Amino acid sequence: MSTAAAHHDEHHAHHPSGITRWLTTTNHKDIGTMYLVFSLIMFFIGGAMAMIIRLELFQPGLQWVNPQFFNSMTTMHALVMIFGAVMPAWTGFANWLVPLMIGAPDMALPRLNNWSFWILPFAFTLLLSTLFMPGGAPAGGWTMYPPLVLQTGNAFPFLIFAVHFMGASSIAGAINIIATVFNMRAPGMTLMKLPLFVWTWIITAFLLIASIPVLAGAVTMLLTDKFFGTSFFSAAGGGDPVMFQHIFWFFGHPEVYILILPAFGIASAIIPTFARKPLFGYSSMVYASASIAFLSFIVWAHHMFTVGMPLAGELFFMYATVLIAVPTGVKVFNWVATMWQSSMTFETPMLFAIAFVVLFTIGGFSGLMLGITPVDFQYHDTYFVVAHFHYVLVTGAVYALIAGTYFWLPKWTGHMYSETLGKWHFWLSTISVNVLFFPQHFLGLAGMPRRIPDYAVQFADWNMVSSIGGFVFGLSQILFVVGIVKCARGGKQATSQVWEGAHGLEWTLSSPPPYHSFSTPPAAATIEGGMR
Amino acid sequence: MTDTIRSSANRRLAYKLLGLTGLMFGFGYALVPLYNVFCEVTGINGKTGELSAAQADAMQPDLSREVTVEFVTSVSAGLAWQFSAPAQKIVVHPGVVTAVEFEVVNNAGRDMVGQAIPSVAPSTAARYFSKTECFCFNRQPLVAGKVSKLPVRFIVDPKLPADVQTVTLGYTFFEALPDAPDTNQKRGSLPST
C-alpha cells in the first residue's frame, strides 16, 4: 500500500522544470495560468494603444501621432483586446475551472490544449510585428472592410494569417471544452447540475465553432482577392464589397456573445456566494443563455443598417435584435432577485460583480437604442457606438474577468489577496471608467464620428473629460497587477472554501488545489453538497 | 468508464466537432452564391436586368407616365479615364426603348482595357430597369488618347412601382486585366490563367 502510494506520488511529481515545463505541459492548471498571464499582458499592450488614442483625442488638432498611426492604434487596440485579451482570458478561466467544477481529472484532450495555447504567442508576434513594418500596422479598422483593408501594405498578409491562427486556437480550445464537459463529468453530475459558468462556456464553445470558421473564410477571401486574382469583394470583377460585411457580421455578432456569455456565468457564480442565497432561476438562466446564442445568428445586419437594405430586411433585423433584450432581461432580473433580501457582503469580487450588472445593463440599453433602425441611421459610426460597446465589453466582459480573478485567486494561489488594494482598484476603476465612457454617449449624439484623430472644437470639452477618465482607468489597472503579484507571492493562507457562501466542487479541494485533482471522481454526496 | 473508452470517446467527439468546423468554413463560402442568388431574386444590390430586343419591343408603352432617369459616371481610383454621360438626366416613358451614348476618353497615355459595372438606385427599381444593349456587357479596349462612344439601349418596365419617379443609373469604370475573362455578372470567379 505504502509502496503503491509512494510510486503514485513519484509518478505525479515527475514533470520537467523551468521553461520546458511550460512548453510541454498538458496540465489544465498550468495551461490555464499561461492563458491568463498571456491575456493580462495583451490587456496592457491593448491598453497602451488606448492611452495613445485618448492622448491624441485629449485636444482637437493633431498633437502626438499622425493620422495613419492613429488609425493603426484603433485597429490594433480592437484586435489585441478582443482576440488577445478577452478571448484567451475566458479560455484560461475555462481551463482552470471547468475540470474542477465538473470533477474531472483534466481537460479531455490535454495535448490539443497545450497546442491551442502555444499558437497564440505566434499569432500575436505576427500581428504586433506589423507595427514595425514599412507602411505600418493595419489601419482599416478591426472589421477589415474591403476595399479599404486591401490598401494595407506589407502588414496585410500578416493580419490575415494572425487572424487564422487566433481562430485556430479558439476553435481548438472550444473543441476541448465541449469534449471535457460532455465526456469527463463526474458520475452524478448531470447537465442541469452544471455550474452556470460551465453552461455558458459550453454555449460559447458552440458559438466559436459555428462562427470563427466563417471569419476564417471571409479573411481567406480577402487574401485571395488581394494576391490571387479572385474578386469576391471587388466590383470590377463582379463581386460586391457589401457581401464582406454580411459574411463578417455573420461571424461578428455571435462573436460579441462569445465575449460576454462566460461573463454571465461568472456573475452567476459570484452573486449567490456573497448574497449567501442560491441563484434565482437556475434553469431560466440556462435557457436564456441558449436563446441568446440562437438569436445571435439572426441579427447580424443590425451592424449595417445603413448599407441600403429593403424595408422588410431592416424590420426583421430590428425586431430580432430587440428580442435579445428579453433573455438578457431574464438574466439581469435573476441576478437582482438573487440579491433581493439576502445577507450581502461587499468583498472585491462582489463589488465588481454588482458593477458588472449595473454597467452592463447601461450598455444593454444603449444597444437597444442602436437596434432601432431609424435612430441607428443617426448613431451609426459615431462615438455613441463606441460608448455602447465599451460599456458592454469593458464594464461587462472585463469587469467579469476582474471579478472572477479576485474570486478564484485565493483558490489558484492558496493566498488571500489584499482586500484594501482590491477596494482601491474597484473604486478607482469604476469611477474613472464612467468618466471615460459616459461622455462618449454625448459626443456620439452630438455627431462625433468614430476612428478620427482630430475633431471639431465643439467636441473638445467632453473629449478632455473622457481622456482624463481614460488615463485614470489605465493607471488603476496597475493596482490589479500589484494585487495579483502580491497574492501569488504570499499572504494569508486561504481555506478550502475561501468564501463563507461558496458552493461547488472547486471549493472542496485545498487552496491551492493539488497539481492533479479528481484523479478519482468525487462522490455523489460531494456533488449534491456542492449544489444549491 | 475506463480511461481508454473515455479517450476514444473524446477523440470521436473531437473529430465530429472538427467536421462541424469544416462545414462552417464551407458555409462561409456558400454564402457567396447564396448572396448572389438572393440579390438577383430581389434586385437589392442594384443589379439590372437584361432583355432581348424582341422582349423589349413586346412591352406595352405607357405614354401617360413619365420617369426621370439620372446618369452617374465614375472611374475607379487610379484609372486616368474621362467618362461622361450624355446628359445629367432625361425623361422617358415606361415601355419605350431609349438609346443614349456615353463617352469615354483614355488619358492614361497607354492602351488599356476597361470594364464598366452598372448599378441602379433605388434598389427596388433595379428589377424593372433592363438594358437590351450596353457597353457594360463587354470589356472596352481603348487606345491611348482616343475618344470612344459607348451606346446603351434601355427600357423601363411599365410595372415599375408607382412611387418610383426617378431611377438613377450609375456606371463605374474599372481597369480590366488584359488576360482576364469577362467577369461581369459573375462573382468570386477564379482567373482562367
Question: How would you describe the overall organization of this protein?
Answer:
The complex is a heterodimer of chains A (532) and B (193). Chain A is mainly alpha-helical. Chain A has a single domain, classed as Cytochrome C Oxidase, Chain A. Chain A has helices at residues 2-13, 19-24, 28-56, 67-102, 110-129, 155-183, 196-227, 241-275, 282-295, 311-323, 325-339, 348-371, 373-379, 383-413, 419-445, 460-489, 524-530. In chain A, helix 8 packs antiparallel against helix 12 (348-371). Chain A starts with a helix and ends with a helix. Residues 1-11 of chain A have low confidence and may be disordered. Chain B contains two helices and ten strands; from the N terminus they run αβαβββββββββ. Chain B starts with a helix and ends in an 18-residue tail after the last strand. Chain B has helices spanning 3-42, 53-57; strands at 49-50, 67-75, 81-84, 89-92, 98-106, 112-121, 129-134, 140-142, 147-156, 166-175. With 193 residues, chain B is α+β, with helices and mostly antiparallel strands. In chain B, 23% of the residues lie in helices and 35% in strands. Chain B has two domains: 1-42; 49-175, Sandwich (Ctag/Cox11 (Pfam 04442)). In chain B, the strands form two sheets. In chain B, strands 1-7-9-5-3 form a five-stranded mixed β-sheet, with no helix packed on it.
